[in-house]
Amino acid sequence: MSERVFMKGCEAIAEAAVRAGCRFFAGYPITPQNEIPEYFARRMPEVNGTFVQGESEVASVNMLYGAASTGIRAMSSSSSCGISLYSEGVSYMASARIPAVYVNVQRGGPGIGAIQPAQQDYFQATKASGNGGFKMLVLAPSTVQECVDMVYEAFDLAARDENPVLVLTDGVMGTMMEPVVLPPMKSDEEIAELRKKFEHRAIIGHKRGENAFCRPGSVGTGQEAVNIEAAKLYSTWDKDVEVEEFMTEDAEIILAAYGISARISRVVVKKLREEGIKAGMIRPIKISPFPYDTFANLDFNQVKGILNVEMSIPSQMRWDIDHAVQGRTQVNDCLRSGGQLLTNDQVYDAARKLIKEVL
Q1: Residue 214: what pLDDT?
Q2: CATH number of the domain within which 233 lies
Q3: Residue 252: Cβ-neighbour burial (10 angstroms; 0-12, 13-18, 19+)
Q4: Taking the alpha carbons of 312, 244, 139, 173 in that order, is the dihedral positive or negative?
Q5: Mean pLDDT across 61-87
């Protein structure tokens, strides 16, 4: 069995990427994700990789675009307002179907916001990561171990779909330390084989007279053809829905949460169970594609209310919950934002209030 090591979230994210075969990283400093580029700056020379501190977020995401276009496993990271500046480059990568991974360690907002943790980028991540209506897989870890596992998996998902993949975490997960089991390091031979699979459309230089691969562009009906092809990909993502249902079998009250808010909600569910309240939790592990069916297929004769728990004001994941539930049960919110953290007591009090209203 692999040895457990004690690591900070941001550093674990970077190490997982290296072990997944990432050999290019470009990024720009912003709290609370600075330890990701700092770790890459030390680690990349050890694996014959490349680290670049871009002069800006815009420069960094376009370096990611360029590197990933060659077939190398490439990654970038930023936080919230910095990720906003990635939107154009991410949209370009989605249009060109480039397999790249990036990480958002969320902080408070809108605007420059606060450097403390938040979950205010849910809409940006799942609905509008850039112009054009493209979609991405979005993974949302709730432990440092999941940060490791999801970043490692994200590179395979990006390569499978030839599409950008986002890992959406937050400042709590990025700065906390937990024991983790690290995945195996991909060998140079494995990395070379992975790159070779993309060779048929990699931008790596061609002999005189040969043309580089290029997807149809925006002239005439070319862009629509690209969009139709992408839509076919998105329609296959039902198999990628990933959700945790915790103590939901007989639950009359459901707490819905992802990421760090789910850790708090789990504690509250256990406390309510000790008090004889039939509480449970639904945690989207991937927030895109969202587990609509998990909510829609609840027994609403049994489930009397849902408490949406997230560090965002106004609520954002609530939109997807409402879309799934269609008014068949009462939905309340328990929210903080702007870097203010939820506490166990706040979630517990909100749950007790919902219980009083519906039971």
Answers
A1: 62
A2: 3.40.50.970
A3: middle
A4: positive
A5: 97
95-139 per-position pLDDT tens digit: 999 999 999 999 999 999 999 999 999 999 999 999 999 999 999
Mean pLDDT along residues 328-356: 97
pTM to 2 decimal places: 0.95
Distance of CA 335 to the CA centre of its chain: 20
Q: What is the CATH number of the domain that holds 274?
A: 3.40.50.920
113 and 48 fall within a common domain: yes
Tell whether 199 and 281 lie within a shared domain: no
Task: Examine the domain organization and report whether 126 and 248 are in the same domain.
Answer: no
Q: Which of 238, 257, 280 is the last residue of a domain?
A: 238
**Whether residue 110 sits in one domain with residue 194:** yes
Domain that holds residue 65: 4-238
Tell whether 249 and 318 lie within a shared domain. yes
Model confidence pLDDT, tens digit, residues 231-287: 999 999 999 999 999 999 999 999 999 999 999 999 999 999 999 999 999 999 999
